[in-house]
Amino acid sequence: MVHxxxxxxxxxxxxxxxxxxxxxxxxxxxxxxxxxLVIGPGLGRDGVTLKVVxxxxxxxxxxxxxxxxxADGLLLVTENPDLVKGYKxxxxxxxxxxxxxxxxxxxxxxxxxxxxxxxxxxxxxxxxETRACEQLSQALGGVTIIQKGPHxxxxxxxxxxxxxxxxxxKRSGGQGDTLTGSLGTLLAxxxx
Length: 192
Prior knowledge:
Layout: H1 20-28, E1 37-39, H2 47-62, E2 67-69, H3 72-79, E3 90-92, H4 96-105, H5 113-118, H6 125-139, E4 144-147, E5 152-155, E6 160-163, H7 175-191
Parallel strand pairs: 1-2, 2-3, 3-4
Antiparallel strand pairs: 4-5, 5-6
């Protein structure tokens, strides 16, 4: 279910001085009827919208509603990691660039391709990436991270799984959105 009720800078008189909790109240009033939230695909980066979504995330967390974050939803975590820190009912699905931004925001060193290849013996790219994913999850208090890339890495900071099965040679736009929606469905089924 997608609700087109998120306010934006265009829909409010003074975007700099909004009452985000008040603007979020129509969405928050629906939370008791929802099993899960998927936040990010198609969200955009409008300042008012992001402030409202932040309020929704805080309330969803207080009600123990699971959520999946992708795309611009991950921007919120980059700017305010406390939104998800320690919340085990949260899954982050960053691509390589989003992962790098999150890691940088939390002081996690992500080795570049050149650094991995220059290590003695050629290095093990997958184990370096897995370690970085584990460190990011630990820095966020054990949230689950599905790091999308040539090898997908799933980690909660304790247990990690690497999917190195060859898929399509090129990922097309929208596949990440499909993954995020599928994860939301599975979390909703679990909650139901």
